[in-house]
Amino acid sequence: MSAAALDLIVVGSGSASPRPGRACSSYLVRTPGAAMVLDLGNGAFGKLQLAIDYRQLDALVISHLHGDHVLDLVPLRFALKKRPSLRDGRLPLWLPPGGAEVLQQLCGILTHSDGAAFLDEVFLVREYDPAGQLQIGDARLTFAPARHYIPAFAIRAECDGASIVYSADTAPCESVVQLARDCSLFLCEATLGLGSEEEPRGHSSAAEAGDMARRAGAARLALTHYGAADPGDALESAAREVYTGPVLTADDGLELLVP
User: If you average pLDDT over every residue of the chain, what do you get?
Assistant: First the structure.
């Protein structure tokens, strides 16, 4: 990898109804001393292999247990069963509180097996404390509750003064804004595109993502988790109406260096 403190590769940028040819939520974050994946939605595992040998991963961290953020843990499990991790032991899989039981049940249904045993063969399944910190190599991860239909957590990854904040799925939310305070790169969902959503809220528009970036004082904004209804340039324009920093739309395969 490059000499940047943080290197982000967008593995999957699609919403639950992804754009043609795109995978659902997944982001590879690398530092000089670690490689981790944030979420692994459907279609993401095949694209992950274009970016890294999955056996070199140090951890997976899941924001929440909706299918478009976790379903490709199943093909990754089968792959690791045949070609185990190059690290010592099983691959750490960090889930939000209560996530282990939910994922075990889901995998049991999908594979007609004992879900716990299915996962435990290759993953070291753990649950993170959203109020605490998680150290993965030279990267420090912290969390904040998002505003979604189920418990979900935004994730901040920091290394050597650089920081990436991934909003996960969220409607406009002060706790996510605070987590993103002065971050180098804010990777924020824009599921609603140019539209809106009635209560109960669980997603953001491009303009709302821009407003959160403005309030956080983020240095850069990357819009992600969007569908095919609105073109990327229109999403960027909507965000720029409220946020004056650099804005781009994330797409599968995009690499962003954070020095």
Answer: 97
